[in-house]
Amino acid sequence: MAGGVRPATNVGRKRGGTVSLIAWMDTSPDEQRRVREIVALFADKGTLDELGIGQIRDAFSDCMFPGTSTIQTRARYLLFVPWIYERSAKSSAKGTVRRRGEAQERRFITTMKLANQSEGLIGRQAGVNVKTLPSAIYWSALVRYGILTSPLSLDQIGSPARLVTGADELVDRIVGDWSPTLPAPPPTFPQEVEGGFDLTAEEASWLRDRIMLAAPGSVLTHLLRSDATLSADSTAPWNEPACTDGDSDTTSIVHHAEMFSLAMEGAALLYTLLVAERYEERKFTSLVEPTSYYADQLKRWASDRQESSDQLYRWSTKKMWRMAYDLAPRIGAPTRQFVDQWIQAVVSGRADDAANDPGLRSMIAARESMKKGNQSRLTNERMLARWQGASGQGRLVFRWPLVKRLVTDIKEGLARAGT
Description:
With 419 residues, this protein is an all-alpha fold. The protein is 50% helix and 2% strand.
């Protein structure tokens, strides 16, 4: 069906096993977080932005789910990090607050492991040697939700309290680094963490209120306000009933996201088919019959597109672009031209036979060449030889797996109020 997300795992390696092909993941517009997420993306085969539409993808993600990123895991980290750095700021141990805090973050991994709290644990595999700490992953969210009172860097944490002048210029107040209403940590924190990743009712209520205050009108706020339990098997926002029963603004952005995701999956599949064809032409054999597989996937996509043809025909791309430019004003003219041309081919039905359309094939090849330069798999044989399938293939889901986990954490915490 058009609304589904199909991770493909059918392209086999010659020496056994399968190549896991997963949907594109998403990044945020914050530059530091973007760098971390790009590194994470390159660690996962098949999640690369080969055709250069990441800014548009991010605009949708940030509009629907502000403050989130693909490398966040559990909601209680939004409290763990402030608690650790509040404690580090009060410590008399040697070193800066940042250094003491980062050391505590690493010890905290061991604490959670000993408590068998592994689901969503950052550093579960690498342990204390993990390269990216929770503070780096959640910092932008802490700022976005007002948990951190101002956009400080880690190096600025624990500096003397700041004097802030009130709006009427008559009221001055002393502020610390963290929201003054931040819930207190459990008494034994961080040596022991009562409840592990489970939020208490007080913590969940506080987090919900912080997010709703910071992100009014977003799909994320709508989900937190709703009493509905999220569907365990929803794979994208548009097939989650709780995302599509809101007001016109929230349902509109979800609809734009769904149409964009459906349309651009075809471009990704055509690109992957071109790579597969060249891979077989050059006699590489680690993957078994990738051309046949991706040709079938493109036909499957064409069938999905036909099922949604009426929706695509009525889709207002002008409104979509207004939303995208509000959040990502630096989207370049070449990117818009490429996306518009491809969407036009999708809406008209021309893309249904994209595998045999010389014009569309040339357009996709030219776009990848422009974005990748001498790293293009269509021209660089060394890059082609290392190909493992799934070059950007898959439906965009705009951080949905992560968002569903965070929202569920908060809802489950709220439900503990009655226990």
